[in-house]
């Protein structure tokens, strides 16, 4: 089960790193889950929303990536890459659920 404050190690290739510690920083059971990255040069916050829709559930994933310091120069490229990764994540999840 999901518990506010829980942390775990995630393995994913992003910004030259492979492992990130993430923490549940927001939780509304059956409605909203917020996960904040605690390691690395940037601290993205992923929000997952679950809403009733047409007898099923609408799933929305949004990632906020605060870009500060020298990385602001490439902020547009980072955000574009993040949007692409987010779309791929959602499509992969959809494909898995529909199998």
> Strand sequence of the main sheet, in spatial order?
1-2-3-4-5
> Topology as H/E string?
EEEEEH
Helix content: 10-25%
Largest sheet report: 5 strands, antiparallel
The low-pLDDT segments are none
Judging from the principal axes of the Cα atoms, what is the shape? globular
Number of beta strands: 5
Kindly provide the radius of gyration, computed on alpha-carbon positions and rounded to a whole number of angstroms.
15 Å
Average pLDDT metric: 86
Count of helical stretches: 1
The first-to-last residue Cα distance is 24 Å
Portion of residues in beta strands equals 35-45%
What structural class do helix, strand and pairing data support? alpha+beta
Task: Describe this protein's structure.
With 99 residues, this protein is an alpha+beta fold. Helices cover 24% and strands 44% of the residues. It has 1 helix and 5 strands. The protein has one helix at residues 75-98; strands at 7-14, 17-28, 32-37, 45-53, 56-64. A hairpin with a 7-residue loop joins strand 3 (32-37) and strand 4 (45-53). It starts with 6 loop residues before the first strand and ends with a helix.
